[in-house]
Description:
By secondary structure, the chain is an alpha+beta fold. The chain has ten helices and 15 strands. The strands form three sheets. Strands 3, 4, 5, 8, 9, 13, 14 and 15 form an eight-stranded antiparallel beta sheet that branches. Strands 1-2-12-11-10 form a five-stranded antiparallel beta sheet. It is globular.
Amino acid sequence: xxxxxxxxxxEVDPAIDLADLYAFPSPSRKGRLVLVMDVFPNARPGALFxxxxxxRFRVRPAAIATDHPDALFEVGTDEYAFTCTFSGPVESxxxxxxxxxxxxxxxxxxxVAFQVNDERGGEGHGVRVYAGLRLDPFFMDVGKEVQTRxxxxxxxxxxxxxxxEGVDVLTVAVEFDVAGLLGPASGTVFAVAAETVTAGPYPxxxxxxxxxxxxxxxxxxxxxxxxxxxxxxxxxxNEEDPFRLGPHYLGAYRSRLNANLTFFDGLDGxxxxxxxxxxxxxxxxxxxxxxxxxxxxxxxxxxxxxxxEHSLLEGRxxxxxxxxxxxxxxxxxxxxxxxxxxHGPRISDGVDRATSPASREFPYLAxxxxxxxxxxxxxxxxxxx
Length: 385
């Protein structure tokens, strides 16, 4: 499920479990970038953010690579971080219910304060911030995706079941004027990642997130990676810096992706991707550069996920904002990419929309379901065989 429950640490402490990351230009306010992270999958009414963790967006200027043939993007070392922290539970003066207060520290050190679940959010220094319980905008037929990997064939149905129907998450949404806050020299193309880290002067990374389904699908155990059948790579991967993988487990990540990407390519009975002589898949290095790439100067489009990367792979200029919008059907895009390289019909999991579509106005996500369904266990490939 996108990045829901992506490792044992995330399962133990759902308040720090990153579920999804979105980055897109404001649909109605030119020059403004919207960043959204969802945490706490299957959140119940009254769910709160951790007061022992920081929730951080990391933004770096990016450019199309010209000197590095193995990479599509050159990501700068300058970084703009938006770091949100939360108080312990406090009693609201308005109605006596338990709530939280939050603070978002901006790249320049200024802070914006807000109350959790306050529809107005907080505003200052050209930035708006909202945090609170909302309807999960992600949609996917998890059971059929797991069955596809377990049975090694496309098992999706024309009409699928949204496994996240009516489910809530905690969300943090930040909207800001790019040129006004970051300066015109920052450009318009950015690499965006999210992470949760321990609060305090010596933060330890708990989880990180860039593109959807890298950990739960692309790095999943499908019995095809002969180099590693024991260690759950997701917890190790969660500890990595989104913009610079360490050397210790890089070989393990590459082995898993090379094996899995070849496995996915063959699900339709033919191979559309040509691997190198050493078995390296053409998408491996691109996917290990695990962040969203968004261009705030291009038109907003709800189906823009991976459009920038796809255009560069085909040697043409991108036409949309890229990044990832809240209503984007990323599962269909991902499976079409890895199975037929966009050379065949679009592959669909049969689920085309969330419980309620996100809006085009801040804070964008639909209001929460006051009576969400009881969480169900996520199926595994082993159980589906």
